[in-house]
Predict the structure of Uma2 family endonuclease.
Amino acid sequence: MGVADDNKKIMTYKEYATWEDERCEVLDGKVISMAPSPLPEHQDISMQLSIDIGTYLRGKTCKVFAAPIDIYLFEDSHEKWIDENVRNWVIPDLIVVCDPNKIRRSKILGAPDLVVEIISPSSAKIDRMDKRLAYQQSGVKEYWIIDPANQIAEVYLLKKRLLQLHNVYNREQHIPVHIFEEFTIDLGGVFPNREEI
């Protein structure tokens, strides 16, 4: 099965689960993205962040997950839910989840603590607007938008129920992971040198 023919049709996770070899993200029952396979630069950045965060989290309760993993943003791990009622799910590039009750066999239930999206020209608008708003409404505490083209990281923090831009970091800086104390990541080790691309 392929992409829904009518974008006005309300999509549920139950229907999506019948698709073969296709990924999509859905907010309010509407498909917001059908991403092609990521570029090597995107994957390299994701891998570097996964290694840095995963190494820090080794032996701790919080877990890091890299795409693809489905996130039911508004489903509570303590409530009963069924796939046919789920109309909001995303597949971020990287997440950190600190509540083990949210981690299920095939998905994450509820907002991750940290979400990282690595943008491309085709995904920038959705990641900066639609998904940021969904992450805000679901209670994501920290949201990073990684921009490989400009080698910057935008960091948004949840304050008074709003994901507000906290700072923008470049490849010469260390980015603090605000959900943890005293943990920073050297962006020089995350972004590839331009000569390597």
Summary: The chain has a mean pLDDT of 85. The two ends are 36 Å apart (CA to CA). The CA atoms of residues 176 and 182 lie 7 Å apart. DSSP finds three helices and 13 strands in the chain.
